[in-house]
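User: Please predict the structure of the protein below. I'd like the answer in structure-token form so I can feed it into my own downstream comparison script.

Assistant: Understood. Taking the following sequence of 124 residues as input:
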Amino acid sequence: MTMREFANQKALQDYVELHDLVYLWEDGRAFTSRYERLSPQQREIVAVRTKRGVTKALLFAKATLRAEFEGHEALAIKRKRLQAKRAAKKAKSERRELQGAPRASDKAQAVTDEASGQGSDRRS
């Protein structure tokens, strides 16, 4: 079987985007672990011409990566926790805006005004 060859990195990126794939460069640790975990039907090794010569890249379906990400229980729990945290933070900031509560920068300005003698409580 002959190895598919791409003229440059842009050609590889276009191909990957068009076919909903992901690529990893040969010199990375992720390349080796993915290569070992994926079956020959799930992966393809290609040659890509770069400034430094010809480099190999591993192509595989983006759906594989998505399924792995969605199926990872610890990541799912963390994702839900972060979503809840973001929602709580957004609700808190919206409540503050509705109540007209001073922000930390407003408080800092008040302290600066008092220190410089511009505060309204100062008597002559």
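That's the full token string. The helical segments are 9-18, 29-37, 62-71, 73-99, 104-115.
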